[in-house]
Amino acid sequence: MSTAYVIEVYNRTAGIVTGDEHGFSFFSSERAFDSLEGRFFASAREAERAARALLNSRGMPRRRSL
Asked: Could you tell me the pTM of the whole model?
């Protein structure tokens, strides 16, 4: 059985990860995260950390929550 999680970073939907017994694959939902598209992660948390690091490394603006 597979599992899916939405990955959100700073109130932005980065994408989803789908997982099985081998790990999680990332599917980007925003252009800023396209470089993670198709990457494989050991956990959903690891994918979230990668998305957060990507934004931080690019100095991308964080969206404010209302």
From this structure: 0.81
